[in-house]
Write a structure and sequence with these properties.
The chain has 238 residues and is of the alpha+beta class. It is 30% helix and 26% strand. The chain starts with a strand and ends in an 8-residue tail after the last strand.
Amino acid sequence: MESVEQIYDIPDLELSDIHIWGAEVPKCMGKLQDLERVLCDEEKEKAARFLHETDRHISVVARGALRILLSVYAGDAPENLVFHYSETGKPVLVPTAFGRSDDTIGFNVSHSGSWVVLAFGRNRQVGVDVERIRREMDVLSIADRYFAPDETALIRSADDVHALFFHHWVRKEAYVKAVGSGLFRELSSFSVPQEDGEKEGWFFRHLEAGSEYASAVVTDKPVDNVSCFDFGGLNWDS
């Protein structure tokens, strides 16, 4: 991931770009109060309802980082941003007073383990997923239930079934999030490409996430550049 120290140094989000931001939650603890200040009352109340402190921290970091980064791409203060939700629960940014009505920012957020990952694109749909590779899981049984037959067969033949399972899992999750179908789409009803590229008008890209995680982003338009940035080192005015 690239480091960006100041919020005004964030590169422009061009039409052919996707920006990925990773936030390692433990490294954001020193900024937790600043992140919480940009949340709306509803977001603060949602975070407070979590029973476990770790889950509260993840909620604050995810939503706070989303507001701060969207403020850059949409050109308004973080606390001024307003969201509405589709019938399937996908959040959409209400156009700001400073933005053009024909210029929309697509975004998506995922978290697993200690990481929050955020994806942004201009005038496009995006879906992102990150998952910690859990080697204690019976992934073959899960694949039999939730994956298409061709995907299950491929995973069964792999040298590392866990790595390939999560490689496919994040692609499927990112796809349903990009499409906006969420839980209304059966994961076994479709297959995703193993390699990066286009399938039926949707473009799949692997995201490098180290040996303990898997991650992918999916979008509805061709992509020239996918840039990855570290949110933990970013400074902003709170």
